[in-house]
From TrEMBL:
Statement: the UniProt record of this protein carries the keyword DNA-binding: no
Pfam families named in the record: ThuA (PF06283)
N-terminal signal peptide: 1-20
InterPro entries: Class_I_gatase-like (IPR029062), ThuA-like (IPR029010)
Keywords: Signal
ThuA-like domain span: 24-235
Protein name, per record: ThuA domain-containing protein
Highest taxon in the source lineage: Bacteria
Organism encoding this protein: Parasediminibacterium paludis
Length: 241
């Protein structure tokens, strides 16, 4: 009887190990433009999140780590942590494109739309380019998708303080909007209908852009951190949605 119980415990442990998914992430915070003071806070928060979720995360400022698809494919997803400007060579761009299109994930935090303006594939994958922002202020965020893992924990109307991006053009209709800004709740919005977080699939891969997260305080907000956690899980395909 004891042997049977021991055997069942071993089977249960093996089953759990098979079903546990270890997420491996590569995050870059390289800048060739404005460098956000909140980068250290973001990295600290993501490090703690990874520890709590039993994920593996590596941080770099070296774009050469993105130059080889064979090296990238060991990761479930890559994260752009407040990157700005032109930071990747043609070879690195080609490897990232291949990584995403073959099933990898890409999450951009806050400044994805302020990165790589002259890279056509990236701009199509992300869906927008940064134009401007008013002063940092409190605003009302309208959650348009309450089912997605990046937003299912958020209230339908989420009031918080941040730097609020305007984009050069309207967001393409093929993108799935997660969160919009209510421009009547603050000053300086120029979009009218104003998506601020969205996603799309790019061939076999997943891309999610959130323009939230400018301030140090953002990385101590439980709801914002849950938003990022859900976004990472989704682009990494840790769920089937």
């Amino acid at each position: 009887m004891k042997k049977l119980a021991f055997f069942l415990v071993l089977v249960s442990l093996a089953f759990c190990q098979l079903n546990a998914q270890t997420i491996k992430l590569l995050a870059i915070s390289k800048t060739n433009g404005y460098r956000h003071a909140a980068i250290p806070a973001a990295k600290a928060a993501l490090t703690l999140m990874a520890q709590q979720q039993n994920w593996s995360i590596s941080f770099t400022e070296d774009s050469l780590q993105f130059s080889d698809y064979k090296a990238l494919k060991q990761y479930n997803a890559i994260i752009f942590v407040m990157t700005t400007g032109d930071i990747f060579s043609d070879k690195e761009q080609a490897a990232i494109q291949k990584f995403v299109e073959r099933g990898g994930g890409l999450l951009t935090i806050h400044t994805g739309t302020d990165t790589e303006y002259d890279w056509p594939w990236y701009n199509a994958a992300l869906g927008a380019k940064f134009k401007s922002h008013p002063k940092q202020q409190q605003a009302r965020f309208l959650v348009k998708d309450s089912v997605h893992p990046a937003t299912n924990m958020l209230p339908k109307e989420w009031v918080r303080f941040d730097e609020l991006y305007n984009f050069r053009d309207s967001i393409p209709t093929n993108l799935h909007v997660l969160i919009e800004l209510d421009e009547t709740s603050y000053t300086g919005g120029t979009m009218g209908k104003h998506p601020i977080a969205w996603y799309q699939t790019v061939k076999k891969g997943r891309v999610l852009q959130t323009a939230l997260g400018h301030t140090d305080a953002s990385y101590k907000e439980p709801l914002f951190l849950q938003h990022l956690q859900g976004a990472i899980a989704w682009v990494s395909k840790a769920n089937t949605q």
